[in-house]
Design a protein that fits this description.
The protein has ten helices and 14 strands. By secondary structure, the chain is an alpha+beta fold. The chain has two domains: 2-90; 106-378, Endonuclease/exonuclease/phosphatase (Deoxyribonuclease I, Chain A), CATH 3.60.10. A six-stranded mixed beta sheet has the order 3-4-2-1-14-13.
């Protein structure tokens, strides 16, 4: 009887030891994956093609790690818990880029003179849903949101609808009188990089013109540019350049849209479509960066980057001289893409020069597949924006 009891106790201890090793091994695996996801944006996708996918996985991986931490705490596996907590601490700078926690009392004070303020919005408006079945069901919720938010300048992506004038789009007709009154200075372009402004400006295309070609090979047979600059004429006389751009989307679904069709020989799988998009965005990011380097000192860069804060593309465009308005004065995790259950912040407002971001907002209305970002700047400050949290 004693021998059976001894064997039973040995088997129990052995299973317990194996279970402990399993939890500790999984904890180490999750920890390494979290760190890799956090810093994969420092890897050139050309040398390691999974890197962009890993950057997208940081927040999901963090959630998985948190759930696993609860499990190991329930089983009192302290070494496994310590490994998981250490991994989170190692990625805290990255977490701060995704989820900045700037409280109200930490924000810079608003100037007493309203003329010192400039409110800038970036918004991918999905052609005001012109190509969707719901487009004729009433006034555009997207344009209504813009008018209600009342930014001084709105930089739009996908702002055009196959060359159709806004007055001809049924959902925009009810708004056009207010739009023209509020924003006397506008510009539309073939690439859909449009602007609504309360101030006059001069515009120029950036980069070399190319035939707009989707990541999958379909040629729209039209000339377009990757980015566009707007030099504002501000009442203070201060020189300020705005840069608007939109990088390649992921092409997660196919349809009749010219943006996603391909030549009829092949229909790549979703992961292959994403891989091609990542490859093109890297080259396009370098073009945007050169445009920033060639711009005057005071510049605000807005756009649909189609990539997250820690991506290689984001790092290229931000460089060593730009601040991120959301990281500096925003609060919380604020995804700007709202389709396919993919809550990522892929729209960004970057800036440099004698400017100071005072407030950043993510609005959650409209009918586009993106939410807009809006930042309020003090444009009369002599303070040069200093970039931080660039991991």
């Amino acid at each position: 009887m004693a021998g059976r009891k001894s064997t039973y106790n040995y088997n129990v201890r052995h299973r317990s030891r194996r279970f402990r090793w399993l939890l500790e091994g999984l904890a180490l695996l999750f920890a390494l994956l979290l760190i890799l996801c956090a810093y994969a944006g420092k890897i050139d996708p050309g040398s390691f093609f999974p890197a962009p996918f890993l950057t997208l996985a940081y927040m999901p991986m963090l959630l998985l790690l948190a759930l696993f931490l609860v499990l190991v705490l329930l089983f009192r596996r302290w070494l496994a818990a310590l490994i998981l907590v250490a991994a989170f601490v190692a990625t805290l700078p990255v977490f701060g880029m995704y989820v900045p926690l700037n409280s109200e009392d930490q924000l810079p004070p608003m100037p007493t003179e309203s003329k010192s303020l400039l409110k800038v919005m970036t918004y991918n408006v999905l052609c005001f849903n012109y190509n969707e079945a719901s487009a004729d069901q009433g006034p555009s919720a997207t344009m209504a949101l813009i008018l209600e938010a009342d930014p001084d300048v709105v930089l739009l992506q996908e702002g055009g609808a196959a060359g159709i004038e806004w007055e001809e789009i049924p959902s925009l007709k009810p708004h056009m009188a207010k739009v023209r009154a509020k924003y006397p200075y506008t510009f539309t372009s073939p690439e859909g990089l449009n602007i609504l402004s309360k101030y006059p400006f001069k515009t120029q295309a950036l980069g070399e013109p190319d035939e707009t070609r989707s990541v999958l090979g379909y040629n729209r047979e039209m000339k377009a540019y990757l980015a566009r600059a707007y030099d504002l004429s501000l009442p203070s006389g201060k020189q300020l350049r705005l840069i608007d751009f939109r990088l390649q989307s992921y092409h997660l679904q196919f349809g009749k849209s010219q943006n996603v069709r391909i030549s009829p020989d092949i229909k790549p799988a979703p992961l292959e479509r994403m891989r091609r998009s990542f490859a093109l965005r890297g080259g396009d990011a370098s073009v945007i960066r050169r445009a920033i380097d060639e711009s005057p000192g005071n510049v605000i860069v807005c756009g649909d980057m189609n990539d997250v804060t820690t991506s290689n593309v984001y790092r290229i465009i931000r460089g060593d001289d730009m601040s991120d308005a959301w990281i500096e004065v925003g609060y919380g995790y604020a995804p700007t893409f709202n389709r396919y259950h993919l809550p990522f912040r892929i729209d960004h407002i970057l800036y440099r020069g004698q400017l100071q971001a005072l407030k950043a907002e993510r609005l959650q209305e409209g009918s586009s597949d993106h939410y807009p970002l809006m930042a309020t700047f003090d444009i009369d400050t002599t303070h040069d924006s200093v970039k931080s949290n660039n991991q």
